[in-house]
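Ligand-bound model needed. protoporphyrin IX containing FE.
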Amino acid sequence: MKEAIVVKATDFAGRPQDLFINDVTQRKGVVMVDYGPMWREHRRFALKTLRNFGLGKKSMEDRILEEIQHTVKTLEKNSGQTLSPQVMFHNAASNIICQVLFGKRYKYDDQTIKLIVRCFAEMTKIANGPWAMLYDSIPLIRHLPLPFNKAFENMEIFLSHARCLVNEHKKTRVSGEPRDFVDCYLDELENKNDESMFSEEQLRRISFDLYVAATDTTSNTLLTAFLYLMNYPHIQEQCQKEIDQVLEGKDRVTFEDRLSMPYMQVHCDVIIYCL
Ligand code: HEM
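Prediction:
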Protein backbone atom coordinates (compact mmCIF):
# COMPACT_ATOMS: atom_id res chain seq x y z
CA MET A 1 0.00 0.00 0.00
CA LYS A 2 2.82 2.38 0.92
CA GLU A 3 4.62 1.64 -2.32
CA ALA A 4 1.49 2.36 -4.39
CA ILE A 5 0.28 5.43 -2.52
CA VAL A 6 3.54 7.04 -1.38
CA VAL A 7 6.66 5.72 -3.10
CA LYS A 8 5.14 5.38 -6.59
CA ALA A 9 2.35 7.92 -6.10
CA THR A 10 2.59 9.40 -9.60
CA ASP A 11 2.48 5.95 -11.24
CA PHE A 12 -0.83 5.27 -9.54
CA ALA A 13 -2.31 8.78 -9.65
CA GLY A 14 -4.05 8.41 -13.02
CA ARG A 15 -7.22 6.66 -14.07
CA PRO A 16 -7.06 3.00 -15.03
CA GLN A 17 -5.93 2.92 -18.64
CA ASP A 18 -8.28 1.00 -20.86
CA LEU A 19 -7.36 0.29 -24.48
CA PHE A 20 -10.78 0.86 -26.02
CA ILE A 21 -11.21 4.24 -24.25
CA ASN A 22 -7.64 5.23 -25.16
CA ASP A 23 -8.24 4.42 -28.82
CA VAL A 24 -11.51 6.37 -28.89
CA THR A 25 -10.05 9.39 -27.05
CA GLN A 26 -6.56 9.09 -28.64
CA ARG A 27 -5.25 9.71 -25.08
CA LYS A 28 -6.39 13.33 -25.36
CA GLY A 29 -8.88 15.45 -23.44
CA VAL A 30 -8.83 15.67 -19.66
CA VAL A 31 -11.26 13.23 -18.06
CA MET A 32 -9.92 9.86 -19.21
CA VAL A 33 -6.25 10.68 -19.85
CA ASP A 34 -3.50 9.36 -17.64
CA TYR A 35 -1.76 11.46 -15.01
CA GLY A 36 1.02 13.45 -16.70
CA PRO A 37 2.02 16.91 -17.95
CA MET A 38 -0.86 17.21 -20.43
CA TRP A 39 -3.49 16.24 -17.85
CA ARG A 40 -1.97 18.62 -15.27
CA GLU A 41 -1.79 21.55 -17.68
CA HIS A 42 -5.32 21.07 -18.99
CA ARG A 43 -6.89 20.34 -15.64
CA ARG A 44 -5.36 23.52 -14.21
CA PHE A 45 -6.58 25.52 -17.20
CA ALA A 46 -10.11 24.03 -17.07
CA LEU A 47 -10.45 24.68 -13.33
CA LYS A 48 -9.15 28.23 -13.60
CA THR A 49 -11.39 29.05 -16.56
CA LEU A 50 -14.53 27.51 -15.12
CA ARG A 51 -13.91 29.04 -11.69
CA ASN A 52 -13.28 32.58 -12.95
CA PHE A 53 -16.53 32.60 -14.72
CA GLY A 54 -16.54 36.25 -15.34
CA LEU A 55 -16.31 35.04 -18.93
CA GLY A 56 -17.96 37.52 -21.27
CA LYS A 57 -20.50 39.63 -19.48
CA LYS A 58 -22.33 36.77 -17.88
CA SER A 59 -21.46 34.65 -14.87
CA MET A 60 -22.20 30.93 -14.63
CA GLU A 61 -25.11 31.77 -12.32
CA ASP A 62 -26.70 34.12 -14.89
CA ARG A 63 -26.56 31.32 -17.42
CA ILE A 64 -28.17 28.87 -14.99
CA LEU A 65 -30.92 31.33 -14.03
CA GLU A 66 -31.65 32.02 -17.69
CA GLU A 67 -31.92 28.31 -18.51
CA ILE A 68 -34.24 27.78 -15.54
CA GLN A 69 -36.73 30.15 -17.20
CA HIS A 70 -36.85 27.74 -20.14
CA THR A 71 -37.29 24.76 -17.81
CA VAL A 72 -40.16 26.53 -16.04
CA LYS A 73 -41.77 27.24 -19.44
CA THR A 74 -41.46 23.53 -20.34
CA LEU A 75 -43.14 22.59 -17.06
CA GLU A 76 -45.93 25.14 -17.57
CA LYS A 77 -46.51 24.02 -21.15
CA ASN A 78 -46.87 20.42 -20.03
CA SER A 79 -49.01 21.14 -17.00
CA GLY A 80 -51.57 18.36 -16.52
CA GLN A 81 -49.71 16.05 -18.89
CA THR A 82 -46.84 13.63 -18.42
CA LEU A 83 -43.30 14.63 -19.32
CA SER A 84 -39.90 13.02 -18.92
CA PRO A 85 -37.94 14.97 -16.28
CA GLN A 86 -34.86 13.08 -17.48
CA VAL A 87 -35.02 14.69 -20.94
CA MET A 88 -35.94 18.07 -19.44
CA PHE A 89 -33.00 18.16 -17.02
CA HIS A 90 -30.64 16.78 -19.63
CA ASN A 91 -31.62 19.58 -22.02
CA ALA A 92 -31.14 22.20 -19.31
CA ALA A 93 -27.72 20.90 -18.16
CA SER A 94 -26.60 20.50 -21.77
CA ASN A 95 -27.55 24.08 -22.62
CA ILE A 96 -25.79 25.56 -19.58
CA ILE A 97 -22.52 23.81 -20.40
CA CYS A 98 -22.90 24.63 -24.13
CA GLN A 99 -23.21 28.31 -23.22
CA VAL A 100 -20.16 28.11 -20.97
CA LEU A 101 -18.11 26.22 -23.57
CA PHE A 102 -19.36 27.63 -26.86
CA GLY A 103 -21.46 30.65 -25.89
CA LYS A 104 -24.37 28.91 -27.56
CA ARG A 105 -27.79 27.69 -26.39
CA TYR A 106 -29.82 25.25 -28.42
CA LYS A 107 -33.58 24.96 -28.80
CA TYR A 108 -34.76 21.78 -27.08
CA ASP A 109 -35.79 20.29 -30.43
CA ASP A 110 -32.54 21.28 -32.21
CA GLN A 111 -31.44 18.39 -34.41
CA THR A 112 -27.68 18.93 -33.84
CA ILE A 113 -27.92 18.72 -30.09
CA LYS A 114 -30.26 15.73 -30.34
CA LEU A 115 -27.64 14.01 -32.50
CA ILE A 116 -24.84 14.80 -30.01
CA VAL A 117 -26.91 13.48 -27.10
CA ARG A 118 -27.73 10.27 -29.02
CA CYS A 119 -24.08 9.80 -30.03
CA PHE A 120 -22.93 10.18 -26.45
CA ALA A 121 -25.57 7.78 -25.10
CA GLU A 122 -24.50 5.14 -27.66
CA MET A 123 -20.82 5.64 -26.82
CA THR A 124 -21.42 5.18 -23.09
CA LYS A 125 -23.39 2.02 -23.77
CA ILE A 126 -20.63 0.57 -25.94
CA ALA A 127 -17.82 1.62 -23.57
CA ASN A 128 -19.56 -0.10 -20.64
CA GLY A 129 -20.66 -3.17 -22.57
CA PRO A 130 -19.21 -6.47 -23.79
CA TRP A 131 -17.92 -5.12 -27.14
CA ALA A 132 -15.41 -2.82 -25.43
CA MET A 133 -14.21 -5.79 -23.36
CA LEU A 134 -13.79 -7.93 -26.48
CA TYR A 135 -11.94 -5.07 -28.21
CA ASP A 136 -9.52 -4.90 -25.27
CA SER A 137 -8.96 -8.65 -25.15
CA ILE A 138 -8.83 -9.84 -28.77
CA PRO A 139 -6.46 -7.81 -31.01
CA LEU A 140 -7.58 -9.69 -34.15
CA ILE A 141 -11.11 -8.28 -34.08
CA ARG A 142 -10.13 -4.61 -33.72
CA HIS A 143 -10.25 -3.88 -37.44
CA LEU A 144 -13.43 -5.81 -38.15
CA PRO A 145 -16.74 -4.01 -38.77
CA LEU A 146 -18.19 -4.79 -35.34
CA PRO A 147 -20.50 -2.67 -33.13
CA PHE A 148 -17.64 -0.97 -31.25
CA ASN A 149 -16.87 1.00 -34.46
CA LYS A 150 -19.99 3.04 -33.74
CA ALA A 151 -18.15 4.64 -30.79
CA PHE A 152 -15.34 5.81 -33.09
CA GLU A 153 -17.89 7.13 -35.61
CA ASN A 154 -19.78 8.98 -32.89
CA MET A 155 -16.61 10.56 -31.55
CA GLU A 156 -15.90 11.82 -35.09
CA ILE A 157 -19.39 13.35 -35.26
CA PHE A 158 -18.75 15.29 -32.05
CA LEU A 159 -15.26 16.34 -33.13
CA SER A 160 -16.45 17.63 -36.50
CA HIS A 161 -19.21 19.61 -34.75
CA ALA A 162 -16.60 21.02 -32.34
CA ARG A 163 -14.37 21.89 -35.34
CA CYS A 164 -17.20 23.99 -36.85
CA LEU A 165 -17.78 25.79 -33.55
CA VAL A 166 -14.06 26.50 -33.08
CA ASN A 167 -13.80 27.83 -36.66
CA GLU A 168 -16.78 30.13 -36.04
CA HIS A 169 -15.05 31.39 -32.88
CA LYS A 170 -11.82 32.04 -34.76
CA LYS A 171 -13.70 34.28 -37.19
CA THR A 172 -15.53 36.34 -34.58
CA ARG A 173 -13.24 36.45 -31.51
CA VAL A 174 -11.35 39.45 -30.21
CA SER A 175 -8.02 38.40 -28.74
CA GLY A 176 -7.88 38.94 -24.96
CA GLU A 177 -11.67 39.39 -24.68
CA PRO A 178 -12.97 35.86 -24.23
CA ARG A 179 -16.71 35.22 -24.48
CA ASP A 180 -16.57 31.56 -23.44
CA PHE A 181 -14.28 28.57 -22.79
CA VAL A 182 -13.32 28.17 -26.47
CA ASP A 183 -12.21 31.81 -26.67
CA CYS A 184 -10.13 31.38 -23.47
CA TYR A 185 -8.45 28.33 -24.97
CA LEU A 186 -7.75 30.17 -28.25
CA ASP A 187 -6.19 33.04 -26.24
CA GLU A 188 -4.03 30.47 -24.44
CA LEU A 189 -3.02 28.91 -27.80
CA GLU A 190 -1.98 32.32 -29.06
CA ASN A 191 0.35 32.88 -26.10
CA LYS A 192 1.60 29.31 -25.61
CA ASN A 193 5.26 28.55 -25.01
CA ASP A 194 7.24 25.73 -26.63
CA GLU A 195 6.55 23.19 -23.87
CA SER A 196 2.81 23.81 -23.80
CA MET A 197 0.61 20.93 -24.95
CA PHE A 198 -2.30 23.12 -25.96
CA SER A 199 -3.52 22.37 -29.48
CA GLU A 200 -6.69 22.71 -31.51
CA GLU A 201 -7.27 18.99 -31.43
CA GLN A 202 -6.91 19.02 -27.67
CA LEU A 203 -9.45 21.90 -27.55
CA ARG A 204 -12.01 19.81 -29.47
CA ARG A 205 -11.43 16.83 -27.19
CA ILE A 206 -11.50 18.76 -23.92
CA SER A 207 -14.77 20.38 -25.06
CA PHE A 208 -16.22 16.90 -25.51
CA ASP A 209 -14.95 15.83 -22.08
CA LEU A 210 -16.38 18.86 -20.30
CA TYR A 211 -19.70 18.54 -22.13
CA VAL A 212 -19.96 14.89 -21.12
CA ALA A 213 -18.67 15.41 -17.55
CA ALA A 214 -21.14 18.20 -16.90
CA THR A 215 -24.33 16.98 -18.56
CA ASP A 216 -25.22 13.53 -17.23
CA THR A 217 -23.88 14.23 -13.73
CA THR A 218 -25.88 17.43 -13.31
CA SER A 219 -29.08 16.09 -14.86
CA ASN A 220 -28.96 12.87 -12.84
CA THR A 221 -28.41 14.87 -9.64
CA LEU A 222 -31.48 16.98 -10.43
CA LEU A 223 -33.44 13.83 -11.27
CA THR A 224 -32.49 12.32 -7.91
CA ALA A 225 -33.58 15.55 -6.19
CA PHE A 226 -36.96 15.38 -7.98
CA LEU A 227 -37.45 11.75 -6.99
CA TYR A 228 -36.55 12.54 -3.39
CA LEU A 229 -39.00 15.45 -3.18
CA MET A 230 -41.76 13.38 -4.81
CA ASN A 231 -41.25 10.58 -2.30
CA TYR A 232 -41.21 12.93 0.69
CA PRO A 233 -43.98 15.49 0.05
CA HIS A 234 -43.71 16.92 3.58
CA ILE A 235 -40.05 17.82 2.88
CA GLN A 236 -41.06 19.28 -0.47
CA GLU A 237 -43.64 21.45 1.32
CA GLN A 238 -41.09 22.74 3.84
CA CYS A 239 -38.60 23.50 1.05
CA GLN A 240 -41.29 25.41 -0.84
CA LYS A 241 -42.13 27.41 2.31
CA GLU A 242 -38.48 28.36 2.72
CA ILE A 243 -38.18 29.37 -0.94
CA ASP A 244 -41.39 31.45 -0.70
CA GLN A 245 -40.03 33.26 2.36
CA VAL A 246 -36.75 34.10 0.63
CA LEU A 247 -38.59 35.08 -2.55
CA GLU A 248 -40.72 37.72 -0.86
CA GLY A 249 -40.42 40.86 -2.96
CA LYS A 250 -37.99 39.26 -5.44
CA ASP A 251 -38.60 37.54 -8.74
CA ARG A 252 -35.99 34.81 -8.34
CA VAL A 253 -33.85 33.00 -5.81
CA THR A 254 -30.08 33.22 -6.28
CA PHE A 255 -27.01 31.30 -5.05
CA GLU A 256 -26.43 34.02 -2.47
CA ASP A 257 -29.83 33.21 -0.90
CA ARG A 258 -28.69 29.72 0.07
CA LEU A 259 -27.35 31.24 3.32
CA SER A 260 -30.91 31.98 4.43
CA MET A 261 -32.14 28.51 3.47
CA PRO A 262 -30.82 26.09 6.10
CA TYR A 263 -33.62 23.55 5.53
CA MET A 264 -32.94 23.38 1.78
CA GLN A 265 -29.21 23.08 2.44
CA VAL A 266 -29.64 20.06 4.72
CA HIS A 267 -31.81 18.32 2.13
CA CYS A 268 -29.42 19.15 -0.72
CA ASP A 269 -26.75 17.37 1.33
CA VAL A 270 -29.06 14.37 1.79
CA ILE A 271 -29.68 14.25 -2.00
CA ILE A 272 -25.94 14.40 -2.75
CA TYR A 273 -25.48 11.59 -0.22
CA CYS A 274 -28.22 9.54 -2.01
CA LEU A 275 -26.20 9.81 -5.24
C1 HEM B 1 -23.70 17.27 -9.83
C2 HEM B 1 -22.83 17.34 -10.79
C3 HEM B 1 -21.52 16.59 -10.83
C4 HEM B 1 -21.13 15.43 -10.21
C5 HEM B 1 -21.94 14.56 -9.26
C6 HEM B 1 -19.76 15.17 -10.63
C7 HEM B 1 -19.00 14.09 -10.22
C8 HEM B 1 -17.70 13.84 -10.59
C9 HEM B 1 -16.87 12.73 -10.13
C10 HEM B 1 -17.31 11.70 -9.12
C11 HEM B 1 -15.68 12.83 -10.75
C12 HEM B 1 -14.48 11.88 -10.58
C13 HEM B 1 -13.51 12.46 -9.61
C14 HEM B 1 -12.24 11.65 -9.51
O1 HEM B 1 -12.09 10.66 -10.21
O2 HEM B 1 -11.38 12.05 -8.74
C15 HEM B 1 -15.71 13.98 -11.62
C16 HEM B 1 -14.66 14.39 -12.41
C17 HEM B 1 -14.74 15.45 -13.27
N1 HEM B 1 -15.78 16.34 -13.42
FE1 HEM B 1 -17.52 16.27 -12.43
N2 HEM B 1 -19.37 16.14 -11.51
C18 HEM B 1 -20.40 17.04 -11.67
C19 HEM B 1 -20.42 18.17 -12.44
C20 HEM B 1 -19.40 18.57 -13.27
C21 HEM B 1 -19.42 19.75 -14.11
C22 HEM B 1 -20.60 20.74 -14.18
C23 HEM B 1 -18.23 19.79 -14.77
C24 HEM B 1 -17.71 20.78 -15.79
C25 HEM B 1 -18.22 21.94 -16.02
C26 HEM B 1 -17.46 18.64 -14.36
C27 HEM B 1 -16.20 18.32 -14.82
C28 HEM B 1 -15.44 17.27 -14.36
C29 HEM B 1 -14.08 16.98 -14.85
C30 HEM B 1 -13.30 17.77 -15.89
C31 HEM B 1 -13.65 15.83 -14.16
C32 HEM B 1 -12.29 15.13 -14.31
C33 HEM B 1 -11.34 15.78 -13.35
C34 HEM B 1 -9.97 15.13 -13.35
O3 HEM B 1 -9.54 14.47 -14.28
O4 HEM B 1 -9.32 15.32 -12.33
N3 HEM B 1 -18.20 17.92 -13.45
N4 HEM B 1 -16.97 14.58 -11.50
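The radius of gyration is 21 Å.
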